[in-house]
Amino acid sequence: MGQGWRGAGGTPGKRTGGSWYLLVTLLFCGFWKAHSHTDDGKSVYFWETGPWGRCMGSDCGPGGSQSRAVWCAHVDGWTTLHTNCHQAQRPSNQRNCFRVCDWHKDLYDWQLGAWNECVPVSARTFGAARQFMCSGGEEGIQIREVGCTLKADGSPAEDAICEYFEPKPRLEQACLIPCPQDCVVTEYSPWTSCSKTCGTGLRNRVRSVLVPPLFGGAGCPNLTEFQSCKLGACVGPEGLYSLRVGPWTPCVLPQTRTARQAKRRKGKGQGLRERGGVKDPETRELIQKKRSRNRLNRQESPFWDIQVGYQTREVACIHRNGSRVGRNLCIPRELPLTIQSCVLPKDCQVTEWTDWSACSKACADPESPRGNRTRRRQALQVSVGEGVECPVLEETESCEPPGGSVPPCASYTWRTTEWSDCRVDVLLSQQDRRRTNMTGLCGGGLQTREVFCVQANAELLKYLNNLKEKDKAGQTQRQQKPSVPPLLSITFQITASRPVENQLCTGPIPNRSQLCQIPCPIDCEVSPWGAWGPCIFENCNDQTGKKGFKLRKRQITNEPTGGPGSCPHLVEAMPCDEPSCYKWQLVSLDRCIPDDGKQCGPGTQLPQVQCINSNGELVDRNLCSSLAVLEPVSCEVPCARDCVLSDWTPWSTCSQTCSSKTVEGKQMRTRSILAYNAGEGGSLCPNSSALQEVQNCNEHACIVYHWQTGPWGPCTEDPSTAPLNTSAGTRPAADAQGLCSMGVQTRKVMCVRVNVGQVPPKKCPEAPRPSTMRPCQLPCKKDCIVTPFSDWTECSVSCDSGGEVVKRKQSRRRLVIQMPSNGGQDCPLVLEEEKDCEVPKVCPGFRWKTHKWRKCQLVPWVLRKETPGAQETCGPGLQTRAVSCRQLDGTQADISECLKSAKAMPAITQRCQLPCQDDCQLTNWSKFSSCTADCVGVRTRKRALIGRSKKKDKCKNTQMYPLSETQYCPCDKYNAQPVGKWSDCILPEGGRADGTAAMKVQGDVKECGQGYRYQAMVCYGQDNRLVETSRCNSHGYIEEACIIPCPSDCKLSEWSNWSRCSKSCGSGVKVRSKWLREKPYNGGRPCPKLDHINQAQVYEVVPCQSDCSQYVWVAEPWSVWKVSNVDLKENCGEGVQTRKVRCMLNTVDGPSEAVEDYLCDPEEMPLGARESRLPCPEDCVLNDWGAWSRCSMPCTRNNSRVRTAYALRYPGVGRQCPELSDRELCSLNLNCFNYFYNITDWSTCQLSPNAVCGSGIKTRMLDCVRSDGKSVDIKFCEELSLEKNWQMNVSCTVECPVNCQLSEWSVWSECSQTCGLEGKMQRQRSVVQASQGDGRPCPSQMEQWKPCPVRPCYRWQYSPWSECRVESVVCGHGTRYRNLSCFVSDGSGDGESSMVDEELCSSLKLAVNGDKKIILKEACTLPCPGECYLMEWSDWSSCVNICVKGAGVDFGSVQVRSRAVLAQEPENLQLCPDQAWESQPCTGGECFEYKWFSSSRPNSSRPVVWCQRSDGLNVTGGCPAMNPPVDNSSCDPPCFMTKSFCSEAGMCMCEEGFTEVLSPAGQLDQCAPIPVLEIPTAGDKKGDVKTSRAINPTLPTTIQPGRTGRTWYLQPYGPDGKLKMWVYGVAAGAFVLLIFIVSMIYLACKKPKRPQRQRQQNNRLKPLTLAYDGDTDM
After folding, report:
1. Contacts of 1632 (CB under 8 A, 6+ apart)
2. H helices of 1251-1387, where?
3. Hey, which bits of 962-1035 come out as E strands?
4. Residues 103, 105, 110, CA angle at the centre, nearest 5°?
5. pLDDT grade, residue 1092 (50/70/90)?
6. Which of 32-41, 960-969, 1565-1574 has the lowest mean pLDDT?
7. 1101-1123, pLDDT tens digit by residue?
8. End-to-end CA distance of the chain
9. Strand locations in 1148-1303, DSSP E?
10. What is the pLDDT of residues 918-937, one digit of tens each?
11. SS3 303
C-alpha cells in the first residue's frame, strides 16, 4: 500500500461550495492547510510500509523470506498506534523470496535482446514522429529487452538474482537516424553524333552516378537523354539487315560412333553396307587416334584428365527493328565459324582436411597465451578450362594449449657479467689526452659489464621434463612417496646460464656501465722536527756506560691509508757523551744580596731549581740527588755613584744544531749601561766588549741516525698458523671480498746515518726500532667463471642466382661472468667457435615442368561435315599438354607443393591450326644474322615456303606472308648518371672500440675524421630505359670523401700555483685559477661554470691557516744613550736610545732567519727608539718595566692592569726612587680584548691530486678573533676554554664528467623499396648512457642513411582491351583481348614505363597489382545497328563520405559506377534495357556539401539555377528539397535581402515563415522571422503552447506525420509595416485580466475582521474538507 490515505467507506468527502475560488485564494496567499473530515474518525490514518529487507534463510534458492516494516501513520505525517488503522487493510510484512548464493552466478545471467529500431526522440516524447528538416541526422533512442534467465533452459527468473552479482545492463541508448540521401548524378555529357547518316536517328547524352541513394533517399534519375536527329533524306535504300553471332554454347563431348549408328538405324532402318576399302573421314580419324593413343597418353596422370569436346554458336540475320529474318536477306558473305574444339571444364578437386596439427603453443604464457595450428588438404584434380580454381590448401587458426597441466613456457631475462675493475683512465682518456701519467689514479672512475640474455626457467623446465619422462617410463610409483623433492622445494645448483639470442629478452636492458670510486690513498703528513732533547741514556733503567743519545721527534698530523707504516721516520738520534736521565732546571735567581750585610757592592744570588726528566716533566728532587747542585751566582748591587748595568739577556739560539771541525755552534747574550758612574767616586762602566758574552753550544758532532723501513711485502701464509688454516676447511666464496685466513707481512728495517747510508743496527737506539712483521688477512681465490656455450646460430638456406646453395657459417659463444683473481683458475682462451653450416645439396623450392604438346585435335568430322573444307583434316583445333611438379633438382614432387609455392601454372591447352591444302605453309624462322658492330647496321632472319605453297600466288604475297624480317642491331651502349641526394657522411667500418665496455664511448671511439658519402647511380640504355647498374660497369654508387668534424673539448690552462694565505695570522683563503684557452665546438665537452665576473677564469678557493707565531718581531738590545744636553761632568740628563727590530721566522729552536717585515703584525712591532732621562749620579736607577698584567674578563673600566720595576741602584742621601709600579684602567679594544671563535665558509670540494672526480672533502677553519676584529693566535681562545662544537670536515662529491655512451651502429636495414630510384637503407644507434656532469654530450645524429643501388622496377601490366571482335560479321557476341607484358620503370609514381622482354619479369610472380588471377580475354557484345544497349561500366566514382558536416558523425564511405543506355532507333526505345548501377564501400572519402546556385541569363528573364557540390562539381540531386532560387533581377531595385524573392508582380516579397519589414519609402527593408503558434487538438495530449522557428513551411500540414493540429502564422505587422488592430485588442484584454488577478489576491490576503464571540458559538463552522480524488478540475 503506497503512501496516501483512504476513508473507511472509500469515498471522498463532500466539497463545500466555492472550493475552486478558495483554493486559488489559498494558493496565492502562500499556504495550504487541509483537515480530514468524514463520519469515520479513523479515516485520517493509513498504513505505511518500508522497503523489503534482504532475503534471509538457511537454504539457497526459493526457500528464503524477507520482511519489511509496517506502521500506522497520520495524514500529517506522524506515526500513531496500530489500532488507529484498519486491521483488515494492514499490508503483509513478510513474503517468500529467492535467496541468492555465490554459486548461483554460474546458473543465472543477464540475457540481452537485440537493439530495436532507432526511434526519433520527438516521436518517443510526444507519441508521434515529428516532421522536420533533416540536417545530417536526427537524434533517436533504441531500446532492448534485458532479463535475468536460467542459463540451462533460458527460462526467466527474477531480476534481483542477477542484480546480486552484476548491475542490470542499460535498456536504452542514444542513436542517430541518418537523413535520406538522394541519388546524385553528374552533368550530362555532350550530345553524341547522330546514329544515322541519313534518315531519322537519335542523339544521346549520358551522365553517371556519383552517390547512390541511401537511407530511403530518392532514386537515381534517367542517366540517358535522347534527341531525334535527321541529317537528310536517304538517297538509296537503308541497310536494314545485319548478321549477328550468338554466344558459344557450353562445351560438351560428342556422341560416340556406336551411339550415332544405333540412333541412325532406329530412325532409318538397316542401311547399305559400304564398299570395302572405302572409309569415310570419321573412320580415318578413329584409326589415326588408335595408332597414336599410347604416345598421346604417355604423360597421362589423374591430374591431367583433359577431355576435348566441342561447342557451337548460332548466326542469324537481324532487322534494324530487332526482329529476326531469313539469313538470305543478309548480304552474302563468308559465314563465321559456328563450331570449335573446347576443353571440357573440370573443377579443382581436393581431399578432405587433415586433422589439425598440434598447437604451436604447448606451454602456458600469460603474455601471449594463444598459438597457431594448421591443417592441409591435397589437390586431386586441378581446374581445367573454365573450371573452379583450387581453394586454399592450407589454413591456420589460433589455439590454446590443450589440457590442464600445461608446463610454463620458456621465459627469458637479462643477465650481466660481474663489473669490471674500476678504471679512472677511461674517464681521463675522455677528457685530457695530454695526461700521460696514469699511475696512482684514484677517485671517480667507470666500470663496465656485459649484458646477455638467458632462459630464466631452464632448470625448472628441465626438472619438469625429467619428471614427465620418469612417469612415462613407469620408474616412479604414484602410491609411494616420490624420491625427488616436490616442485615447490626445488633447489638448483648455482651455475652460469647458457646465453641465448638477445632478441628473446624484452624489457629494459640493464646498464652496461656505471660510475665507481677508487678510494684515494691518504698521504702521511708529519709535523716539523722538534728541538733536540737532552743527552740521555738509551735506557734509563740501565745506565751503564757513558754513551747516550740526543733525540728529536715529530708527530703524524695526517694518518695515512694503511696505517703509519708508510710514514717517514719519526725519531732521529744523535750520539752524545755524559748522558743523564734527569737534570736540575733553573727556575729563577733570587735578588742579589751584598756580602757582609752592606747596602751595595758585590754579593750573590741563590738559584731556585727543580728536578725534571728527559721529557721536561717535573719529577721528585731525589732523582737529581746524584747530580751537582747549581752554585750561587755572584752579582753586584751598584752604589749611588757606581755605573749601573742591566741584567744579561737570555742566551740566543745556537747558531748550529751540531758542530764539526769547521763549524761550531755559538750563542750570545748582552747587557747595556743604565747609568754612568759619578766621576771619580764610583766604579767605572766597562768597555763595550764587556757588554757582550759569547759561548760555544751544540758542541756534539753532526752525526744523526734513524731507523728506515721498506715497504710491506705481500700477504703470505704464516708458517706457524698454516696447518690451522688448512684444517679449518675451505670457506665458501659467496662474498666477492671473502677473506679466507690470516697471513703475515714483512718488511726490511735498517739503521741509516744521515747523508751516509746504512750502518750497523747498534748505531741506532733500540727503543724506537719499528717492527719487521705484522699480521694480515689473505683474500680468497676467485676462479674464472664462464657461461656454457650458447646454441649454434641458425643456418639460413639461401641460393644465388645460379641456383647454388650459398655456404654460410654458424657460431656460438660464451661469456666470462667472473674474472680470476688471487691465484684462481684462469679463463679459457676460446670464447667463440665457428663452423660451416650443414646445408642441403640442392636449393629448396619447387617448379613446374611442362611436357610436349599433344597433336592438334579437331572437331569430330561428323560435327563439321557441313562446313566448308570438311573433307580435309585441317582447320582450327585444340592441343593439350601435361604439367608436372618438380623440385629444383628435378625430382618428382606433389602438385600441391607447386600450387602453394611455385609460380602460376603454365597453360595446359592452346589453340592450334592444322594447315589445309590451300593454306600457305612456311618453315620456322631462322636465327638472326650476326651484326658487324654494336649499334651499327641491321640483322635479318628468314623463312621459306614449303611444298605446294611455293606455287600459290597468294602465298607469294610478301605483305601477307613475309619471308624475311629485319631489325636494328642491338646497342650495348649505356649511359650512367647520378640520381638523388648525397647520403650522410659515413665513417669506414672498424673504428676503435673499447673492448671492456663493448660500446661506443663518445670521445673514445673514432666518431670523426674522413668518411665517405654516397650518391646512387642510375644506368640507362640507348632507348632511355632503366637497366641494371652493372651494365654501366658500376657498383651503383658515386663515392666522395667527406669530413665529420671532430668535437673539440673545452680547453683550460693548468692550475696556477696556490696564492699565499690571505692572512698571516689565523684563517684566510688561498686561491688558484685556470684560464680558458679554447672554447668547445662540434659537440665537444662543455666548459665548467666560469666565474660570473670574469667569464674566462675558473677559480678554486680553499681556507688556509697561518700560525700567528710563525713570524715574530725580534728586538736587539738598546743602544748606548745619546744625551742631548751633554753634561761632561755628570754624563746624565735627557737622551735617546735606539735598537734594531727585525721580523724573523720563528722555529722550534727560536727565531732563525730574518724575513720581510710585512709578514709580522705591524701592531705588535716593538719600538725602535725611546726618549728618556739618563740617571745622574746619586739618582735611583730602575730596571725596565715588566710586562703588563692581564686584565680580568670581562673588560670593564672598573678593572685595571699594572706593571712593576725594581731598583738596581738605590739613590743617594736626600733622593728617592720613583714609583715601582704603574697602573692603568682596562679599556675595551685598547688594552683589554674579548675573544671568540670564528668559522670560515666551506671550501670547494677538494679531491686527491690523482683523482679526476668522485668523493672529496670540504673543509673549514676555526679562527680566534679579537673583539676589535683582528685574528690572533688560537691559544687566546683556547685559554678561555670556549665551546667548539663545529664539524670541520664534510665529505662531498665532484660529479664525474662521463661522456655520452652510444651503442654500436645497427646493421643496415633492408632497402625501403625493392626497386626504383628512391630506395634508402638506414641504421640506428641508441644512447646507452647519457652524458653526466661536464662529459661530452651525445651527438645529434642517431640515424644514418644511404641510397640503395638503383634496380629497375619490373612488373606485369595489362595492355588496354582491344575492340570487341566478332570475326567477319557486324554484331553479336564476341571476344575482346588484352596482352600481359613486362614493363620497366624507375619506381616513381610519375615516371614513364617502357615495355621490355618478358624474360626480365621471369623472376616475378604472375600477378597484376596483386591480383593473381590473370584474365587476357573476356566475352563482349557488339551491338547491331539500331539496337538499344547498355554502355560499358563507368569508372568508379571518387570515394564519398556520408557524414554530417560539423557534427563529427560518419556513416561510412561509398563509391559507385553505372551503366547508361544508348539508343540508335526511335522505334526501339521500348526495347531498351534498364540502366544499372552498383556501389561498394571504400575508405578515405571526403565529406561534401550541396548548395543551390543561380545566375542571370543574358537576354532572358529566366535565371540559370543549378546544384553544386562543395568541390565545385555541378551535380543533379543532393541539394535540399526546397524551392530553388529564382531570378531577382526583374524587380527594380533587385531583391538582394536575405529570404526575399521577386514575385510575378515584380515586387520583392519574403519567403514563407518570414514577414516583410518595409522602409519609410515603402520598399522592402528586411525579412523578419515570425513565430509558429501550435494549437493543440483533442488528440494532442500536450496542453501547453510553444513557439518555434518555422521549419520547411512549404510542406502542407496534411503530409506532416505526427501533427494532428493546425499551424497558424500570426503576423503582428501588416504589409505596410504597422501593427495590426488585433494586436492592440489582445494587449488591452491582457491588461484587464492583470487588474482582476491583482484585486482577487488583495481581497483574499486581507486580514478579516474579528467576529463576535456569541455568534461564533452559535454558528460554529465545520471543518473544511479538501479532498483530492485525482480529477483535474480541482
Report:
1. none
2. 1275-1279
3. 964-968, 975-979, 1000-1001, 1009-1020, 1026-1027
4. 160
5. low
6. 32-41
7. 888 887 777 888 888 878 877 77
8. 25
9. 1150-1154, 1169-1174, 1181-1182, 1200-1204, 1207-1209, 1221-1225, 1235-1239, 1254-1259, 1262-1266, 1271-1272, 1289-1294, 1301-1302
10. 788 888 889 888 887 766 78
11. helix
CA distance 1149 to 1164: 21
CA distance 1642 to 1653: 26
Taking residues 374-396, what's their average pLDDT?
87
Residue carrying the nine cell digits 736540575: 584
**Cβ distance 341 to 375 under 8 Å?**
no
Q: What are 1273-1297's pLDDT values in tens digits?
A: 888 888 887 777 888 888 888 888 8
SS3 91: coil
595 to 635, 1180, 1211, 1385: CA distances (angstroms): 10, 21, 19, 140
Torsion of CA 271, 277, 283, 287, to 10 degrees: 150
Other CB atoms within 10 Å distance of the CB of residue 218: 13
Let me know: does 709 contact 669? Beta carbons within 8 Å. Answer: no
Give the separation between CA 1425 and CA 1269, rounded to whole angstroms: 128
Contact 8, 37 (CB under 8 A): no
Is residue 741 scored above 70 in pLDDT?
yes
Furthest CA-CA distance within the chain: 209
**Within 13 Å of residue 1453, how many CA atoms lie on the same side as its CB?**
13
pLDDT score, position 1452: 81
Class of residue 548 by CB neighbours under 10 A (exposed 0-12, middle 13-18, buried 19+):
buried
The helix (H) or strand (E) run that includes residue 1516 is strand 1514-1516
Distance CA 995, CA 1014 (A): 30
Rounded CA separation 859/1209 (Å)? 173
Q: Would you state the pLDDT for residue 135?
A: 62
CA distance 32 to 19: 13
DSSP 494: -
Task: Work out the number of other CB atoms within 10 angstroms of the CB of residue 1550.
Answer: 21
Stretch (H or E) spanning 1627 = helix 1621-1645
How remote is the C-alpha of 1566 from its chain's centroid?
Answer: 61
- Side chain identity, residue 567: C
Beta bridge partners of 1566: 1557
- pTM beyond 0.85: the answer is no
In sequence order, the β-bridge partners of residue 1429 are 1462
Q: How far apart are CA 190 and CA 1617, in angstroms?
A: 51
C-beta atoms surrounding 1487 within 10 Å: 14
Which residues, listed in sequence order, are joined to residue 741 by a DSSP beta bridge?
A: 778
C-alpha grid cell for residue 183? 541519388
Which pLDDT band, with edges at 50, 70 and 90, does 186 fall under? very high
- Helices vs. strands in the chain: H and E counts, helices first: 14, 106
CA neighbours closer than 13 Å in the CB half-sphere of residue 263 = 6
Task: Write out pLDDT tens, residues 1166-1223.
Answer: 888 888 888 887 888 888 888 888 888 778 778 888 999 888 888 888 888 888 888 8
For β-strands 571-577 and 547-553, DSSP reports them as antiparallel
Say if residue 906 is preceded by a cis peptide, omega within 30 of 0. no
The Cα–Cα gap between 434 and 122 comes to 88
3-state DSSP assignment of residue 862: helix
> Alpha-carbon distance 398 to 360, whole Å?
9
- Is there a contact between 1116 and 1143 (Cβ–Cβ < 8 Å)? no
Dist CA 1359 CA 1393 (whole Å)? 12
Query: Could you say which DSSP state residue 1282 is in?
Result: -
Residue 327's Cβ-side half-sphere holds a number of Cα atoms within 13 Å equal to 10
Pairing of strands 673-675, 716-717: unpaired
CA distance 443 to 452: 29
Q: What is the pLDDT of residue 1600?
A: 34
Q: Please state, in angstroms and rounded to a whole number, the distance separating the CA atoms of residues 217 and 534.
A: 128
